[in-house]
Amino acid sequence: MEQKKYLQAKLTRFLxxxxxxxxxxxxxxxxxxxxxxLKDLAKKYSDKLECCENEVEKLMEEIRCKAxxxxxxxxxxxxxxxxxxxVRLPPQRKKDRKTRLETRLHVTGKELRSKIAETFGFQExxxxxxxxxxxxxxxxxxxxxxxxxxxxxxxxxxxxxxxxARRNVQVEEEEQNEARLKEQxxxxxxxxxxxxxxxxxxxVDPVTTPYLDIANQTGRSxxxxxxxxxxxMLAMGYHEKGRAFLKRKKYELALPCLLxxxxxxxxxxxxxxxxxxxYAVLQLDTVWCYLQLGQLECLDDAEKKLNSAQKCFKKxxxxxHQRLVDIKGNCGKEKILFLRLYLLQGIRNYHxxxxxxxxxxxxxxxxxxxxxxxxxSKVDRLLQLGFTRQEARLGLRACDGxxxxxxxxxTHRREELAQIRKEEQEKRKRSQESINxxxxxxxSTYAAKHALHQARGNLDExxxxxxxxxxxxxxxxxxxxxxxxxxxxxxxxxDQLVYMGFDxxxxxxxxxxxxxxxxxxxxxxxxxxxxxxxDLQLTAEDSSSTPSTSPSDSAGTSSASTDEDxxxxxxxxxLDDIPEHEEDxxxxxxxxxxxxxxxxxxxxxxxxxxxxxxxxxQK
Length: 619
What we know:
- With 619 residues, the chain is mostly helical.
- The protein is built from 27 helices and 5 strands.
- The chain has helices at residues 2-17, 37-49, 53-80, 109-120, 162-166, 169-200, 226-247, 251-265, 270-273, 278-292, 302-317, 322-328, 335-351, 355-372, 376-384, 389-398, 403-440, 445-454, 459-468, 470-475, 480-483, 491-499, 504-513, 518-527, 534-545, 557-577, 591-618; strands at residues 82-88, 98-104, 127-131, 134-135, 152-157.
- It has a 5-stranded mixed sheet, sandwiched between helices.
């Protein structure tokens, strides 16, 4: 089967290079039947392919029939507006994995999903459709999502086939529950990442509140423009979640996460993406996921993704990895990424009919595998010293297999990271202390955080910002802990302001606006000639008309508590999948890679053997 796919891809490439159109005369007659000219053409290409003439003729006829079918669909689309979609079914559907479906483009994603489910025997709620590298949105029309005629649609099934499920009612129920849980998992992933990304924009207590941060290759936090930070946070979060699913071999759940990560990475500037290797690793993981789903041919831009990864690695690591060596002292661990890159490039070339290029890339991957293979006894020696298995693999690869050097390397890295984490925690604590100081002066948490953010953490500058325009911070306040306090000012506070020389009416209004804060009220009145600005006068009127909290208002407490619990669960689920080791993405046992390298090298060798056999038979 693989040899046939290879020959078909190679023949298709030859035909394109020679601009041969099998669906037109002289190879196809007026009735769209095959003509004798095809046999002569098969003889010509059998020599180029080094394959028997009959086999080439069969492959050509398959290509010709598909081209005619496609042409008929094109004519039909022009006349009726009915588009044809090439549906790629999951690997477990052994027969007819590629099939065509007709639809109008004004229908919604939900309607298309229903049609696919009905046509191919899926349960509608337990499939996902991937088109143009994006998950199909159910509420939008196909046109709105850029779906066009002759587009390819990949079907991801979140449970086993319906035929298998029918064999046992209990099994069916379990599978449905599992699919439902998978869908809920994806939704929780999205919510958890959004919460963590929002926290990254705020100053939180690092001890009590989990948050996401972005670090460079040494482990230190890096400053990122606010306009790009949230997008990058979400991109990296989805990538980590996708990688977690890849480790568990849950590829149908990994792919949507990886595609979402790609979407958010594309919202970041190219300058930022050129400085980190995350985007390149994502390209490898996405192509790897398609391979494991048996849908590699569905990824039309696999070559583009792999080339993009290669260019990104070059920019991040420098020529011959020199920049990487300057930063980290070695490049042994990162060679894992190049092993997978060469392997995927070899597979892509094989499926494109480029046998020689495939063999070259697969051999490069095999050489790297041999270089990166680790003697299990060396890992055991490091385990006895108290290091983890992951640390052992990474350390040995960084030190070319030397156990003593690896132990020293791991110890040094542990100390270095501990110091970095300590510094980052102290930085966060100082920020929290600054917020608390501003809060004791009467400012809300919201105002304190944003003023400090604007002042880049400088407390004095933040205070100047707040004093220069207090009403701006107060009107924009969205802090729930102060927004719900609508208490009447005390007579004692009013008397204080009157004693300072302010009018009683202005003092009362100012205290209502600033919820009893004498300091903020006095500052604002003094800066505005003893009266409130017009915008704050409106705020004072609103606060006086706002009813006090009634017992019925507390009815939402239970619901709020439930929502908070759900958010905590979503966040914890994300945090559980974020690896403790910052170089987890560089760690691999290479077990999967070893199997796939051997498999595709055997395909290439078998193709060569078959070619040699055909040549000898022809002689």
